[in-house]
Structures are given as structure tokens and as C-alpha cells.
Write a structure and sequence with these properties.
Farnesyl Diphosphate Synthase, two-stranded antiparallel sheet, 1% strand, Polyprenyl_synt_CS, Polyprenyl_synt
Amino acid sequence: MTDSPLAMPVVDAELELRLVGRLARIEELLAEHCQGRTPYVTQAATHLMAAGGRRFRPLLVLLAAEAGTHPDAPEVDTAACVVELTHVASLYHDDVMDEAALRRGADTANARWDNHVAILTGDFLFGRSSELTADLGPDAVRIQAQTFTRLVEGQILETVEPGPGEDPLQHYLEVVAGKTGSLIATSARYGAMFGGARPEVVEALRAYGEIVGSAFQLSDDILDIAADSDASGKTPGTDLREGVPTLPVLMAQASTDPADARLLELLAEPLVDDGLRAEALDLLRRHPAMDQARDHVLGQATQAKKLLEVLDPGPVRTALESFADIVATRTS
């Protein structure tokens, strides 16, 4: 997505160097927080953390803190660990729910051990995250509890069909906001809070994080259909094969055009057959729903950047604006 060693573009060399250094320290702290009382627990808890990842959430904490008067406060580092531990813990549970065998190129915990170990390891990491949150004070505890509630509720809603009279698209957007947007919103909020930013900046960055976090997932939806596997490294149609509803698919399913009858027929079931999936991909790529989905994500990026006007012009605001643009237009 970017040539930067970070998960988002930072054009200011001094800021980039500072963030790279601080993120390396966060990596060390995360390894410490994954230590259990026995080697077995430590091995399970460090399994996914050691597999890597973009570390976007802790990076956003660190970057948002730069909008305040004391970005180097130790509470900022603690908050960065809180959000990443929460995220990684949720991945252990996600992999059990999805019966996934691989995560970040490594065996999932449920594949390497079993579902019980994976679930309990996720719980262990949630516990570690809660311990650290308690060190941040009652406001952080309340925010973390609210975030965790939304994250779990989003995961639950993902497993159920929309209710009678409920718009399937709105149901899905609520799932995305809960599962993905909520924790990224808290990442930006924590950074600004503990970095000493003004209250209006804290709120703006919270809202920015939720919008950009959701947009990142929705751009993944578009890539699952539009991407060329050679260029993106992704296998197109994975969500179609698994019958997972996504933004372009839901927009296409809202069509009442008789010409879409074949596409709607294909989208009614998981497309495990390679030939049928290829046919659906071809029809979707030529369908107006793709442009509608892209317009939706572009609109979110514009909305997110508008929120940043409360920040003073400078490298922090520029980095956040650039990331919103990349999320909306990325090809991998």
C-alpha cells in the first residue's frame, strides 16, 4: 500500500523516524505482555503476535498523540498496547468462528492446537489488555468496555441474518462499524487523549478512526471482486466462495433490473464451484454496483478528511489525510 516502513504514508522524515522508533518499543512491550506463567501459555499467546501484522492500531495511537502537547507520555505507549492486544485477541476468536487454518501466513492457534486453546488464549490476551487499561484510569476503562461491547456485538450480528424489514446493507454496515471501526476509533481517541490534545481534536480523531476503519474493510470488499490476483496478492472471489455478504454484492442484490436475474441467481448461494464463481465475478465487475461501492468508500474518505480540519496544518494532519485517500483508492 505504501513504501513507508509504517502502515500509512508519513512524508515528514522526522515524524516517520520518531514513529518507527516508538513502534519498535511497542513491539517489545507487546512481547512482554504476552508472557504467561508457563512456557505453554506464552507460546500460545505470542503465536499470532509473532506472526507480524501492520500494527495499524498502535501506530494510529502514536500518530494521534502527536496532535497533543505531550505525545511521549508513557500512557500513550500503554494505550497502544491495549488496542493491539485487544485486536489480536479478537483474531484468535475470529479464527475459531471461521474455522480458519492460516493467519498472516502461519497456522492459526486453532489449527496448531485446538479450539479450546485458541479461545482461552484470546481470553488471556483480553485479560492482559484489561489489566493495562486499568492502569490508564476509569475513563479508559469505560471507553474500553464500550469498545469491546461494540466489537463483540458486531461479531454476533455478522452471524445472523437481517431482521424482518431490516435493510441488509445497513445491517452489514453496522457489522463493519462494530467489528472494525470501533477499535480503530478508540485507537485514535486514546492517542489524542493521552497525548494531551484538545477535546475537540480528541472527538474529531475518534470519529475519523471509525470512518476510516470501516472504509478499510469496505475497500477490502471491493478488492475481493475487482483485484487481479497477480497484482494484489489476493485471490478474487474469496467472499463469494464462502457466501459472505460484502458491500458490492449487497448493492447488486438490491437491483430490480430484470437483466440482473442471472447474477442474482448466482449470488443467492455460496459459489464453491470455480466456473460459477468466475461467471459471478465477471458479471459483478461490469455491474453498476461496483461504482456505487467505490463512490461510497470515496465519500467516507472525504467525510473523514473533513473531520481533520480541526487539526493544525502539518505532518500529522497530512499523514492522516493521505491515509484516508489511500484507503479509498488502494489496489492491494
